[in-house]
Design a protein that fits this description.
This protein is an alpha/beta fold and 347 residues long. Helices cover 38% and strands 18% of the residues. The chain is built from 11 helices and 15 strands. A 7-stranded mixed sheet has the order 3-2-1-4-7-6-8, with helices on both faces. The protein has a 3-stranded antiparallel sheet with strand order 9-10-11, covered by helices on one side. The radius of gyration is 19 Å and the shape is globular.
């Protein structure tokens, strides 16, 4: 049996994504992972809520904390949109946490707040083995690869760095690169904080591309994987990917409310929301998300609207109009989940 890896997690979100962050943390705990979680709180309401939990394993960080140890971050802030600023923070947050933990050999893992674990998170660390840096490919289907390759071969949803010479060197390079350039437009192989991951293996030793369809299954790659269900006595059925890999975590990118529906982004990537994906993946997550929505709503920390990555100008207006059209088509084609479907899900 592998020796458990010393590790900690970090993520960031505002009060609009607070319920997603709570669902993520809850999924870690439900699968036996009690590692420290560091959260960069993007507004005061999110920080107040997490601080009031009084959970000694949840540590809150502010943008001011990051700027205090990275003077260059405040300098680039005026030139970047809010989302571009947040993207810039990703490696800086990881380095902040690694320094705070001060545990050589341990692994600091960044998680997007819209991830959710369906199996033991240690399975991802086992895939890293003795490696210094762990990254996971998007695994785009062939029909999407040419169109989406500009966003990078690797996805930034799960990234891990070991506190060793290779891990530190790669993390420092990534942090410096994001401070230099981090924009929400693909240019010359770069895209936000994510495009840089493509260079990790070329520049540094100890970089491991983590394999397995059960790691970072997402709307953009479900079309290339086959899902089945394995019955588990006394527990929810286990989702198996490609007949061999347990679904460890899913990346619920692009979920949003539309009236009494939760619209997925499956349609955006041309991958149908089939029965197994709906019943064994989306419904359990959305039921948990709805529970935390209710808890947060009653806490007095009113969520703020989620940050739009596309801004408020002409580009943002066009994006929102297109998204509204996709929402309606998603509901009509059953690529959305209704609130009524969650009522009998056993949440």
């Amino acid at each position: 049996m592998p020796v458990p890896t010393r590790h900690s997690y970090c993520s960031y979100f505002d009060s609009g994504y607070l319920s997603r962050g709570l669902a993520l943390i809850d999924s870690l705990r439900r699968h036996g992972d009690d590692a420290d979680v560091w959260v960069l709180c993007l507004d005061d309401a999110a920080k107040a809520y997490l601080d009031e939990l009084g959970d000694p394993t949840i540590h809150t960080v502010t943008a001011a904390d990051l700027e205090a140890v990275n003077p260059g971050l405040a300098e680039v802030k005026p030139d970047r949109s809010r989302m571009e600023y947040y993207f810039t923070c990703t490696p800086l947050l990881m380095r902040y946490v690694m320094d705070a933990q001060n545990t050589p050999g341990s692994v600091t893992v960044y998680l997007d707040s819209d991830l959710f674990f369906f199996d033991d998170p240690a399975l991802v660390l086992d895939a890293l083995g003795e490696g210094s840096v762990g990254i996971i490919e998007h695994r785009y289907p062939k029909r999407l690869a040419s169109r989406l390759s500009k966003y990078g071969r690797y996805n930034v949803g799960w990234v891990g760095f070991r506190d060793d010479a290779n891990g530190r060197a790669c993390l420092d390079w990534w942090a410096d690169s994001c401070l230099d350039w981090c924009y929400d437009t693909p240019v010359d192989g770069k895209y936000a904080d994510q495009g840089y991951l493509d260079s990790f293996e070329k520049l540094f030793g100890g970089v491991v591309s983590l394999q397995g369809g059960g790691l970072n299954l997402a709307p953009w790659n479900t079309g290339r994987h086959d899902l089945s269900v394995q019955s588990v006595a006394g527990a929810r059925p286990r989702v198996i990917v490609d007949g061999r890999d347990p679904l460890v975590f899913f990346h619920f990118h692009g979920i949003r409310r539309f009236g009494h529906w939760f619209v997925t982004s499956q349609l955006v990537y041309g991958s149908r929301l089939g029965r197994i994906l709906r019943e064994a993946v989306y419904v359990p997550y959305l039921a948990k998300l709805s529970t935390f929505d209710t808890i947060v709503a009653g806490s007095g920390h009113a969520p703020k609207p989620a940050v739009s990555a596309r801004g408020n100008g002409l580009r943002g207006t066009v994006f929102r109009l297109q998204r509204a059209a996709v929402d309606r088509v998603s509901v009509a084609t059953r690529n959305a989940v209704s609130e009524s479907e969650l009522e009998h899900s056993g949440r």
